[in-house]
Amino acid sequence: MKLFGTAGIRGTLWEKVTPDLALNVGRALGTYIRKGKVAVARDGRTSSIMLENALVSGLLSSGMEVIQFGLIPTPTLAWGTNRYGDAGVMITASHNPPTDNGIKVFNGDGTEFYLEQEAELERIIFSGEYKKVDWDGIRKVRQRDIVDEYIGTVLDFVDHETSLKVLYDGANGAGSVVAPYLLREMGAKVISINAHIDGHFPGRKPEPRYDNIAYLGNLVRELGVDLAIAQDGDADRIAVFDEKGNYIDEDTLIALFAKLYVEEHGGGVIVTSINTGSRIDEVVENGGGRVYRVPLGQPHDGIKKYNAIFAAEPWKFIHPRFGLWIDSFVTMGLLIKLIDERGKPLSEIIREEIPTYYLTKKNVKCPDRYKKTVLEVARHVLEEKLRSEIKEILTISGFRFNLKDGSWVLVRPSGTEPKIRVVVEGPTEKKRDELFELAYNTVRRAVEEAMKKKE
To answer: Alpha-D-phosphohexomutase alpha/beta/alpha domain: from which residue to which, for each copy (predicted)?
Structure first.
């Protein structure tokens, strides 16, 4: 698709994301759903209100009634759409830099638009076949503040009071209007940083990768908190540090929740993305459950296909019993509840319950026009060399070999950059290093050979 990527439309302001585009997305959405109420919200980026107004104009021109929720996190918009709308739109670029913005579209049940729906919106936009209403068909715009109602619903779902001490880093993003208040309502002692909304993101880069939030480890130790929670610009992502100041990697956090859910259900299906690790499979299978993997950006498709009890990709968690959208606020509430109910610090819970694997990832530069050839060559070479060890081959987002000892090799093209990503994990550092050397060098040589042939 030309407009939609793995998480809606996203890109640099004026180069890809413009008021004209927002206007046309509004017109296309109104044309697609024909009638009803559309919930609209925005994050704190400097360009978001401009794009929101253009989007609302497009919706009105096609006869939609609009409910504006104002500046709120993406999970809150999804919840509000499920409660009050027939569709929803969030103006956000999530964790992208402040120069960017984007548009994410939701169904009335709070799920993100599926691939076929996004394709239909693109078709309408490029065809210009918009529904238009006359002056007397233009509906109303209503404003509604749903933050307190949303916090109350999360509190009811989590159903837990705590006395933990929590450090919260809001990235100067939209989560700052919910997270500190939610945590305090749970009884937590909250220390907030970067919790005033600023579209320039002066506190830190909005993506909660370790290199952007490593300073939280020292703050945890200095302040003596029980955990630290960091969010991204629109608060759908969540990253965590334990009470010792250790960053909890994404796969470990997914495995912790996956284990919790299969224990509660006595099994069940867990959906996760193609780039996640074997510790998830191990804890789920030990609990009588099964793991299915889907492409990045499609956990909601996986829930629909496999009737999953939990779905996640790095930093993003969906709790279907609460709602069919990524929700970091439910995640933080349930994590605090888990720590209290286990009666142990987070580091100890992880050490006792989650197995250790060793992961390495690195990118190989590759022009987009060579990616298909490189993937074909690399797969053939690696499949020949690893044939006796391969347990399963997955061919979504490139290819992934799951090996019999729990190791795995993933080679996938970047969807946004001229790179091929190589990810390897093993049960020992030695096995990981051996596999990574083989996989990385295979991809690198395949790129070199492809470029020589084209010269």
So the answer is: 2-129, 148-245, 249-357
Query: Tens digit of pLDDT for each residue in 33-84?
Result: 999 999 999 999 999 999 999 999 999 999 999 999 999 999 999 999 999 9
- Residues labelled catalytic: 94
Give residues with Cβ within 8 angstroms of 62, minimum separation 6: 26, 27, 29, 30, 31, 130, 131, 132, 133
Residue 15: which residues within 8 A CB-CB, separation 6 or more?
Answer: none
Cα distances (Å, whole numbers) of residue 405 to 57, 383, 391: 56, 16, 9
Contact 363/427 with Cβ under 8 angstroms?
Answer: no
Measured CA to CA, the distance from residue 44 to residue 436 in angstroms comes to 40
| Shared-domain flag, residues 219 and 277 | no
d(CA 20, CA 327): 30
Distance in angstroms (rounded) separating the CA atoms of residues 171 and 233: 6
Q: Number of folded domains in the chain? A: 4
**Residue labelled with tokens 């400097």:** 46
The answer to whether residues 30 and 70 belong to one domain is yes
Same domain, 120 and 65: yes
Domain that holds residue 172: 148-248
397 has pLDDT over 60: yes
